[in-house]
């Protein structure tokens, strides 16, 4: 069975960069179903095409401040099934926190100057489209400012290995396959991570997201 190409809406106000990204993504097997140069165009394109993932620049016309990420928050609220990958030169902490407020599943935030390879970017797109996360450690550090930075050091090597795979967006089943252990064993390691990070169960149960954020912040 042939995998369906990833359907992408691309929001970038620089025409040259936008056209270049369309070509690069096309060469990597993605289908850019629409492009947008402004936040309203982005919102309209997502509503019309319902892509697997929307790539969003933060600063877009007319003010070039935070129109893009405001639009991302609006898209997240209205169509949570659409993955969001913020791709920018800037970190807007307040808006990033709002974007992640209901969990990091299906959310990415990468900094342009830190993405060295096209394959890395496309891998992040697929991860986000599948409900995983792709967060640059610098973004995470700013979101976690003032937090403890020693909890990862309390983990066993296997617990840290499991957490690292969690941070890459893998499910417990996927982690078990990669480590050649049972899914039950992975669940025990994950539970140990939660305990060591002091993350009790809640109704929302976003402990997995918090554990990953802690790992990324402390592993810079």
Textual characterization of the structure:
The structure is a single chain. This protein is of the alpha/beta class. It has two domains: 7-142, Rossmann fold; 152-218, Winged helix-like DNA-binding domain superfamily/Winged helix DNA-binding domain (Arc Repressor Mutant, subunit A, Orthogonal Bundle). 49% of the residues lie in helices and 13% in strands. The chain is built from ten helices and six strands, in the order βαβαβαβαβαβααααα. The protein has a six-stranded parallel β-sheet, sandwiched between helices. Helix 6 crosses helix 10. It is globular. The relative contact order is 0.10. Residues 148-219 form the HTH luxR-type domain. This is Response regulator transcription factor.
Defining key terms:
single chain; 220 residues; alpha/beta; Rossmann fold; 2 domains
Chart the SSEs and their pairings.
Elements: E1 7-11, H1 15-27, E2 31-36, H2 39-49, E3 53-56, H3 67-78, E4 83-88, H4 93-99, E5 107-111, H5 118-129, E6 133-135, H6 137-143, H7 157-167, H8 172-179, H9 183-196, H10 207-218
Parallel strand pairs: 1-2, 1-3, 3-4, 4-5, 5-6
Domain Response regulatory: 7-127
Pfam families: GerE, Response_reg
Domain HTH luxR-type: 148-219
